[in-house]
Apple domain-containing protein
Amino acid sequence: MSSPAHAIYSSTFSLSLQGHEFQPQYGVQLIFNETARSRLLCSAACSQNPSCRIFDYDSSSHRCRLFEADLTNGAIIATASQTSIVGSMILSASLYASMYNQSCSACQGNRYQTCSSTTNMCQCPGNSYWNGSMCPLQLFENAACSQIDACRSDLNLSCVMNSYGECTQSLIG
């Protein structure tokens, strides 16, 4: 029997039909490309990595790829291998709202939020941002944005709040 506390440590995936793989929009989104003995072990590797939101697995080659991506910045595409499948993490506000900005004890050991060493509060993990209800991945260049921390700062992008808001390269100088 699982307790309610156990649910915050688990991940739920939506699986594609066989014969599909994930195509990221940017190379930087691939965070792991190794072999795994089973789809279950590949999905467990994704679940244990706070950056992972999508994995694909090929049961013939045992290729397991983890991505810091979602379906807004990549696509599930048909592939020649009929033994390849994609798992997309299912996220909801309930995974985030009860912990965000709480003391670090609330998110200890949790994959969805991390403890900020500067504030000692639960925050969104790297390359994601708080949108008021959950932690979506930060956006890439030319994406529409509506708040200052929505863009990938590690890629020197910032949200220019003009009439529509857009992630653009920060000026260095």
Observations:
- The radius of gyration is 17 Å.
- The helical segments are 4-7, 39-48.
